[in-house]
Structures
1.
Amino acid sequence: MTYSYFPGCTLKTKGKDLDIWGRASMEALGVTLEELPQWQCCGAVYPQAKDEIAAKLSSVRALASARDLGQDLVTLCSACHHVIKRVNRDMAQDEYIRTRANNYLNLETPYTGETKVLHYLEVLRDAVGFDKLKEQVKKPLTGRKIGAYYGCLLLRPSKELEFDDPENPTIIEDFIRALGAEPVVYAMRNECCGGYTTLENKPYAARQAGKVLENAANCGAEEVITACPLCMYNLKENGGGRLPVRYFTELLAEALGVKEAEA
Amino acid sequence: MSDMTEIVKRISGVNPRKCMKCGKCSGACPAYDEMDYHPHQFVDMVENGRLEELMNSRGIYMCLSCFACLERCPRSVEPSKLIEAVRLAVVRQQGKNHLNPEQIPELLDEELPQQAITSAFRKYRK
Amino acid sequence: MQKIGVFVCWCGSNIAATVDVQAVSDALAKEPGVVFSTNYQYMCSQAGQDMIQEKIREFGLTGVVVCSCSPRMHETTFRKTCEKAGLNPYMVEIANIREQCSWIHKDKETGTEKAIILGRAAIAKVQLNAPLTAGQSPVVKRALVIGGGIAGIQTALDIADAGFPVDIVETKPTIGGKMTQIDKTFPTLDCAACILTPKMVDAAQNENINILSYSEVEAVKGFVGNFSVTIRRKARFVDETKCTGCGLCTEKCPQKKVPNEFNLGLDNRRAIYIPFAQAVPKVATIDPNYCTMLKTGKCGVCSKVCTAGAIDYQQKDELIEREYGAIVAATGFNPISMDKFDEFAYSQSPDVVTSLEFERLMNAAGPTGGTLLRPSDGTHPHTLVFVQCVGSRCDGGEKGKPYCSKICCMYTAKHAMLTREKYPDTDVYVFYIDVRTPGKNFDEFYRRAVEEYGVHYIKGMVGKVVPENGKLKVQASDLLGGQQLHIDADMVVLAAAIEPDKSARPLATMLTASMDTNDFFTEAHPKLRPVESPTAGVFLSGACQGPKDIPETVAQAGAAASKVIGLLVKDHLTCNPCVASSNEMMCNGCSACEKVCPYGAITYIDKDFRGPNRTTLRRRVAQVNPAVCQGCGACTVACPSGAMDLKGFSNAQIMAEVDAICK
């Protein structure tokens, strides 16, 4: 299995752990992630306004480049996934946006939403399979109580992301179970961490992140995992240190025995 | 201002008349207490042509774009799209950028991920 | 050539304001075959009808065209008028120049032109009309009621009281339906069981009523007055005639971990069970999904303890076939699943319950014996939050229903009031979008909840429920107070939308009864025929037609019964003579018509035809049973060789109309 892979800006800098352990684990699982050549920023936020075309173009470039390689496009960062998946949907379904974006880009073959966008977790669930993953686990995380933190961007809007039940998601819990640990379900797992208001209004971001960790801890979680570098920052730096927060790929690498080998 | 209201409705794709005034958006909003006008008021005030008050409000920079209001709205009104459109109506004006590059250095810390700055730039200025 | 009279109606100003009626009658007078043409202010009035009869006699008319309102309105009227003057009623045609012309046009010139065209088409059709005579079919004097809730029980009781036998088919082991699970009823707060169980007993003891519990309708054939229904009597592994309902088996059965559907899974029952104390019939049933004996062949405890020898592990499903004159759908409703609404944490905390679960938690026969306790830890709740409109009034899509479920405002007021009355130490919040309480003494009831019982009614909606440390953190908007509320609640009660029972859709297909997009049965007319389905002989009772409370259900159940009685008192029904017939010379026996016929009216026979040189050819040809055919015309369209035709609406007649319009 070979996929095109879009890491995004943060995974090359502050979010290296998400990327490194993600790649190493997939390799161990026999899945090849080929980094897209000369990828650009995903756009960082999905522009909701219909007339914002320019901000979507860099996502379209990534999508078209995966299409040209004939590969599905795998993302790992929640924000990148959110933006690329939604832009892809626009290119497939919104005539207005598709026409204008293609006019700007003037690609050899106009892009019309052909690429399939998959989140890393979806590859684990659907291509590898959580059952198969379980068999590959070398060091089961037995006895660890882990809270999945989904945040907003992976789940909403559910009609467009088509990722999981937006109010009662299970994919990360199933992932945790496959690694041999015990998932802890808590209601704040799909509420916002405070997002980029950390720049604008740090005390507020701190309150919001604190509520998330408080709820996870009170429901019995001893650690929390996430797929988003911004969530990681808010929970870790603003969250009051109530619980350790890790990227889910780091946990995966640990269970697969990859992390130990490299360390 | 009425032209502007039409533009806000058009670029957001929101039809405020679909709203049944249940307030679930404002019940779901995690940033409620940070905003001077709340998600349900955005819908009501756009419908009633009170765009100027919204454009002058601080709330447009407090919205997290977490899409909780959009997801939980029983009538698919999707207030978050309206809030973003109002914010765009402001920052697209000459000299109305909410965030300037000079402000960035003091906002940085060792761990702040790039995406936070990029996102804020995309959201807060044109 | 027919001798045709044309009668153009003004309908006061309804037609005359937009259509020049004089021009219409003048123009139509020139059509071939028209010997008389006039216009009049109200053709349906006695004077108008007298004029038509007079002109039939005076001119010896053989056909009549009335240009007026829709045939739905007055076709029958004018047919009767003409029949009294000696004309065959099927020689009358209506040109609809009101609904399809004057009401939708503003310009008089256009309206007049169109009215003339419509009149001309009707004249062209009458030229080809032939007198038709309606036949008669007998009526089987027995009714079937599908569903044994309060709707079905009331309908059955009323039909039985009029002296007709009636069968109730109920899929559950007992009749009684949802009302058996309800604690108290609004707005009088009388106990639901106290008013329902006597009716259940009445039904059981009425000699005209036959209860087929634990049974399902499998197939329906036939037509009004003559339905033939196949009913599956599911194996309950207990002989109904022997079981005394002593309940010993239900105490001794070792399989104790079966979720008890009567208490919505809030407690457990045994694998052999009687749903509740007042069940009718009071007979035990073995649940084959949990019975150890049926699954592994090892156990047999119930059989050993049963002194009546009623247990029969070998029992099989049984199919019975019965004839009925009328069928009543009374399949009821269910609360929708809360799976898609986990912002309220229904799947995360046992203390978040639906309103129907709350009924069981308040009920003396419920899992807590009537003491309100939290399902999670059995403690007494102090703060309760009720959320209205969960899944109602949504804009479609897979999440929620577009309609108002109608009963929730009142039962929530009831729950809030009862909680405050029984437990004065509680704080009770109700989050509402609108409080809808039309109904006798309904708004007064709601006001009492607020004013006398101090229930906090808050205009706004809950946006998130977070279970934490034994509390339910409720985040909600308070729109009138202009704030976001955060309440630490002990219980949250969700007023889940209601939807038609899942059995309704396949049943509607069997009955060829129509449904709306929400799977509620459609009535024949939303105002004037609310308890009849558009399919003759099929009637509607209770919430299967739309959300209803108990008083409305009982009223509709009675109305449905009166319609059934009106049908069953007749010895014969007049058939519609506009039925299909097959031209055997053209039929090639392809079965296309048989496949599309929704009534099973078409069969095939092998028939001998004379061939060339004195030979005989045997051919397969279609035959229509005119008593079964409803004249829908599907076969005439499907027939590839044009052998099928519909009397009164023949292909030639339709083409003549089209030609007249295009002329």
2.
Amino acid sequence: MSIDLQTVKKIASLSRISVTDAEAEAMVPELNNILGWVEQLGEVDVTGVEPMTAVIPNHLRLRDDVVTDGNVRDKVLANAPQAEHGFFAVPKVIE
Amino acid sequence: MTNLTDLTVAEIRDGFRAGDFSAREVAAAFNANVAAAKALNAFIVETPEKALEAADAADRARAAGEALKPLSGVPIGMKDLFCTEGVQTTAASHMLEGFKPTYESTVSKKLWDAGAGMLGKLNLDQFAMGSSNETSYYGNVISPWRRGGGDNAALAPGGSSGGSSAAISARLCPAATGTDTGGSIRQPAAFTGISGIKPTYGRCSRWGIVAFASSLDQAGPMARTVRDNAILLESMAGFDPKDSTSLDLAVPQWEASLSSDLRGKKVGIPREYRPDGLNAEIAALWDRGIEWLKDAGAEVVEVSLPHTKYALPTYYIIAPAEASSNLARYDGVRYGQRDLPDGAGLQDMYAATRAAGFGPEVKRRIMIGTYVLSAGFYDAYYTQAQKVRALIARDFDQAFEKCDLLLTPTAPSASFALGEKQADPLAMYLNDVFTVPASLAGLPAIAVPGGLDAQGLPLGLQIIGKALDEQTVLNAGLAIEERAGFAARPEKWW
């Protein structure tokens, strides 16, 4: 499988990273080089092998369904590029 | 008088307790070294006042006859991947420039609670993605080491914990925190002639550490001796309900149990770690390491880890996939940079913010990760990689039926010149060939210096242990440390 300019632009769009045409073109061989290399995994026989999701056997803990945090609005907003009236502010999304 | 900045963590702790010097004298000495080492670019933010504040608290406690804390009087460096309350935390990215967390990471909090003071926030590869510390937005870290013979080429301190490794080997701090996703503690330790341990996945809480690849990220200490690593790790490890993968286990007394007597232990030598073309000096050091462990009483056996060659490609699917997901949070809304072109809508703002905030290697990995997780390719790449990861972990399980620990080189070469490998991402990735397998399997592993190569640069050995058996890893590291007698240090030029 090799990817072309259009695919690179699509991946960039899915990644929400704007790229210029020149940047996208430069990425085509770069990404192909890396993807071509990782494709060697296809040759490994994985019949009957379960995909690994946790490296160290550990059970996912449950806790009581109670509020453990909160009332820290100003701390949450402290690093926002733009905060107004106690909210995060973003460009208008609905006309 | 003793040069305080030449002391190890253990010597500072014990000397302070014995009344040989004050904590303030120690902090001031390290602050002075930090201030005089701008040429290394090891720190993004310097916090001399924090180091002095902790030192004064230690001095007051000592004067009042109060019980001293495990790290009272010891100043350390903090990798700038750990969130520190009120102190800028950037992950070496432009994206987080100016970000001052309103909370403290669990690991850093544990260290401050143990009495340590902060000398500053250490430079690293951007979002911990890199092996040479050349991807930081705040500039390259320069290794204090130089090749012999008047060659003044700037060398890589390794990565991603390159600020930590450079600062420790240059005596800017006696110890520092690191994080290790595929070798980011061990490879920089090897490049700079110091020690560093990545504990078992789950030993140290990931809460408050800027996330890269969550199934692999693990914090650990870096210092000049194995004992210092044991001391630091005792304060860093421990259960944290705020991290769902944190192990609910008591923290062993690693320092008190240190012993370089390896009688009864079997050391496995994985044959797949000796590929054709392995650097001859590294191979020779490895052979010396085998003799050192035999001398310490261990029995040596050959073992096989058949899927070793697939570890790097597996890592370069799984780590970018997790990174693409983790780094989705940088949206220009909640923290960090925002780039809002004139008239742009929300989607345009996301794309512009991320284009401006992330460096090229970070973008590359996000895009690889996005691709391997995208519809139609998920099974071929990501699920396949997770299955191969299971086989890599099984290789270790089977090897550990025949032995108690593994001895390997840490990195395939000594430090290289900055710029030398930057043009080819794949060549850079290959640096992690010996460290990535243990990361994929979540196993504890330490890097210890073994000697110098013909150019006068440090080379390291790696010990990989069974899950949760940091003690054997530390003990074998100590056995090598005692026999290698590594005393070399970079000649001061900065």
